[in-house]
Amino acid sequence: MTNSFFQHKQTAHCESGVISNLLGHYGLQISEPMAFGIGAGIFFGHLPFVKVNGVPGTTYRIWPGAIFQRVCKRLGVRMESEKFSTPEKGMAALDKVIEAGIPVGLQSSVYYLPYFPASYRFHFNAHNLVVYGKQDGQYLVSDPVMDTVTTIDPESLTQARFAKGFPAPKGKMYYPVHVPPTASFEKPIKAGIEQACHFMLKVPIPMFGVKGIRFLSKRVRNYAENPGDRKATLYLGNIIRMQEEIGTGGAGFRFLYAAFLQEAAVMLNKDELSKLAGELTKTGDLWRNFAFAAGRVCKSRSADNVSYKELSDMLLECAASEEVFFKKLAQVKL
């Protein structure tokens, strides 16, 4: 069957994009930046003990699924969410729900999605997309990071939903069972801002928030000795990949959060939020500059052009900028 009523909108990031598209389908209009902000999506973490494709993990946003859970809780949306022990059960459950005309959110691995360009298909198991119907044996897909709707064959979708590795999707699917026709965004905006400030400034673990950026800076400074030049290139490459290619990446998430603050400034009639949005875009530019410089080091396979010390100093500048920003944001009377 087809579901021609589902409206696809391209967005910058998969999880907040799926939220915007799914809730919009049921009449609750929420922009992608607003979903990202209410869900307190902005974050930073560097986890040397969590290996992604064999190298330490770096994240510029909160863990997968958290944005969705927070937005639903704060707006009074009830979701049905399931994981499955076998691919057969997972695909049968998906078919049953879309047969009823219900668009379904899925967690998947980018590697097995054939509509992605080959250079973007690597093992990342936390990509979100919507399947909204089935036609001629193909599933109809609204992937929020693509400019148009597309299709996928059952075998590829099964592989994407049940990919091995961390985090294992286990066929996760989710769809709304109750969406309020209208919702007040004022309290959710305030709760999202308070939570984001807490996670960036007050988590007492050195690998998270502003502390986490400084923690990474120290490690990058010593990359030439530990893990050594060859591995350092891989480590740096993954930091850039997580920043620039996964979802909107580190800088992109800063621009997305700035867009949220612009919207929130209007809704709450708080000009301070608009001014802070401008400051955060400058932080986004600092992250972009870091990625460019780190990319030069990776491509030359040596630190001839830019030293690891210089990269470390650039990260310290990002940390200082984010600390000033979030302290100011925490002091705004909402």
TrEMBL record:
Pfam families: BtrH_N, DUF4872. Residues 155-329 form the DUF4872 domain. It comes from the Bacteria. InterPro entries: BtrH_N (IPR026935), DUF4872 (IPR032369). Residues 13-144 form the Butirosin biosynthesis protein H N-terminal domain. This is Butirosin biosynthesis protein H, N-terminal. The lineage of its organism: Bacteria, Pseudomonadati, Bacteroidota, Chitinophagia, Chitinophagales.
